[in-house]
Hints:
The complex is a heterodimer of chains A (637) and B (257). In chain A, helix 1 crosses helix 8, helix 2 runs parallel beside helix 8 and helix 16 runs parallel beside helix 19 (512-543). Chain A has a 5-stranded mixed β-sheet with strand order 2-1-3-4-5. Chain A contains 24 helices and 5 strands. By secondary structure, chain A is mainly alpha-helical. The longest helix of chain A has 39 residues, at 170-208. Chain B is α/β, with parallel strands linked by helices. Helices cover 37% and strands 26% of the residues of chain B. Chain B has helices at residues 51-58, 80-86, 102-112, 117-130, 146-158, 176-191, 203-209, 227-234, 239-250; strands at residues 6-18, 24-36, 40-44, 66-71, 74-75, 87-91, 164-168, 195-200, 212-217, 220-225. In chain B, the strands form 2 sheets. Chain B has a 6-stranded mixed β-sheet with strand order 6-7-8-3-9-10, with helices on both faces. Chain B has a 4-stranded antiparallel β-sheet with strand order 2-1-4-5, with helices on one face. In chain B, strand 4 and strand 5 (74-75) form a beta hairpin. The interface between A and B is large, with 36 and 42 residues.
Amino acid sequence: xxxxxxxxxxxxxxxxxxxxxxxxxxxxxxxxxxxxxxxxxxxxxxxxxxxxxxxxxxxxxxxxxxxxxxxxxxxxxxxxxxxxxxxxxxxxxxxxxxxxxxxxxxxxxxxxxxxxxxxxxxxxxxxxxxxxxxxxxxxxxxxxxxxxxxxxxxxxxxxxxxxxxxxxxxxxxxxxxxxxxxxxxxxxxxxxxxxxxxxxxxxxxxxxxxxxxxxxxxxxxxxxxxxxxxxxxxxxxxxxxxxxxxxxxxxxxxxxxxxxxxxxxxxxxxxxxxxxxxxxxxxxxxxxxxxxxxxxxxxxxxxxxxxxxxxxxxxxxxxxxxxxxxxxxxxxxxxxxxxxxxxxxxxxxxxxxxxxxxxxxxxxxxxxxxxxxxxxxxxxxxxxxxxxxxxxxxxxxxxxxxxxxxxxxxxxxxxxxxxxxxxxxxxxxxxxxxxxxxxxxxxxxxxxxxxxxxxxxxxxxxxxxxxxxxxxxxxxxxxxxxxxxxxxxxxxxxxxxxxxxxxxxxxxxxxxxxxxxxxxxxxxxxxxxxxxxxxxxxxxxxxxxxxxxxxxxxxxxxxxxxxxxxxxxxxxxxxxxxxxxxxxxxxxxxxxxxxxxxxxxxxxxxxxxxxxxxxxxxxxxxxxxxxxxxxxxxxxx
Amino acid sequence: xxxxxxxxxxxxxxxxxxxxxxxxxxxxxxxxxxxxxxxxxxxxxxxxxxxxxxxxxxxxxxxxxxxxxxxxxxxxxxxxxxxxxxxxxxxxxxxxxxxxxxxxxxxxxxxxxxxxxxxxxxxxxxxxxxxxxxxxxxxxxxxxxxxxxxxxxxxxxxxxxxxxxxxxxxxxxxxxxxxxxxxxxxxxxxxxxxxxxxxxxxxxxxxxxxxxxxxxxxxxxxxxxxxxxxxxxxxxxxxxxxxxxxxxxxxxxxxxx
Lengths: 637, 257
């Protein structure tokens, strides 16, 4: 902070905040949404929920049981007035309203039962009466049995204990609901307010030329960053606090949908929320300020901020996973630590050490991001006029665009493609190659004006190039075999994965031609177009050819969705990238990829046999290097 | 010209920008010029000649690759903050806060220069009065006309009363009235002993305003001198022909006849 002049920070804060506060969108977000939208929206939702609730309760009441006593279990399972199911956690099911009642046996001798009900639901109270009648029947039948035996006391209290537990007890409910929801609401609100402010103050001002005006005044970069960050911090803190307060008022008035009773909100817990909001806002704002400072235009800024916000939701959701609670490790993970501290505060499980570590971790991360932002402001590309852009080097936003696109496609491939493949292999594979690689690649190229010859390198290379690329697939396959053997020493491939490969290669539903098309031609064509066509072209213009080839190789490895395949496929990607680059055409890489896959598909024993001998591996290495050198020296035909 | 009067001194200034695959483009190829107190020096050149790059280096927005640039005795590389304190920079790309009024804008930038209290109020009032901004000083900048905005920008440039003014194509995009107002401001700055360095590609403006001109093309300073000296050097009757002669001579294409 040595470089920061606090008087200038204060001046920047005053005037920037005034300027931002006069924006109509700001006023709308600050006042209209919390004051009008939440109460009216919740009231409407509550009304709609009430409309739906009676019709839902017309069916038989549901009860979740966890009973060891066979007689009692049979009594409930066979009862005609209940829809009974056995459950591991009747309490949670009653609380989450999956069932109307829950019944749990805690102990056999004496028999201890807990009946969970929800006093806020009339249907649950009605079901409770029926359940009590069943339990009475059971008790009297057991009393009669015991009388017949003649050796047990008559008083049922000595062997039968029933505890009634209202899962909707106001205090417990309030604490649970708030512990669950307040961190989520807080994070979403902070991201929304901070994102808006940082976009306006960085790429927005760059577009308007205000950043340039500021930078010709005697202000140190760190001072400038601190001035703007304090604006973002104040804006997002008060914006979030106002929205949060409105949500809490709605909750205390009983306006939350699906809850007829108001939530009890103790002042100390609310104070915790607003206190923890501050370090969290500091962290989020510093991250978003850093992200926004890297964008050249408002639109590019939106393209950076949105994924950054989505990324920050990951540690938030991690905090909501069952079994995750505040400990020393989680205290150091940003976002997760605040969410867990809030949860602990509402569940009265707070520890001062955890709070201290959370605050410290947030402060350290916030400072690092602010320092990085001040360094970004000191870089020349931060301000570049269109005239200078003519001379400029790598365009950072261009690179980010490529990575976000690639990342999005790989996520789609990972979640959707794998899911479909697990249900229908052929359909899933076809959809992955053509729907997730080729089609998005074509659309991306069209959207950003990538030219087929110049950028995507779709020009014809000449027959010699193609023939050599096909020939090189054999030494390449041998080297991959050798590499896998080496890798297996350190990272053995699991049996299931090998089995999955065998199943894939055998694919009984398809003939030889079908397999050749689906597992050799399709990946060769679609993956090469995506990785060595679109991504390599985009990254080359931004990062230079070497780094572009490296990045596409890594993405290619990651695209095979397995840590065991990452390095071998990345190595193949590196080789194919160099062939595409130095061959000045995509087609040699396509040909090499197709023949490589075909070799592993139909003649896997050939490269395997060659790789088993050291001399074979050396020869293959030499052949692949010589082939590459030929591409290097020969260039395009 | 006395050495002590020189406020801008540029020596062998080079600037290269990186391009793809490790290549570079030389935007400035070692230019040398100087500008004294009470003088208006014009950098004249076509688009892409390197005018803006030179001015942005002097305004500390860019770092030179080699060479030296000194403003008011401060090296742009070693003391950028002191350089910024000494100069007022105005270009087509320096914008204003759209939602602040003209008066607030001036107050804001005056505070950034450390002014406060009565000194601040007096100086802001002086600038508003001097540039005839009273009628719109309370209006947000986004609602002002182009000419009014230009006056606010000029006010922002002058608020700390700098000794050096660097103006990058100050009249580009302005209507006739606003351009005339800007020219008046430049002449009045000269009359008050300011050192003014400006870039332009409008010949008439250069001829009217500048005491000396430097013709810049592809990063090289081809010729330097007063308008009359340039005409004499090239044997042309007007500045535009003299300018074209310099450029074409550089490209090895002399004007036929």
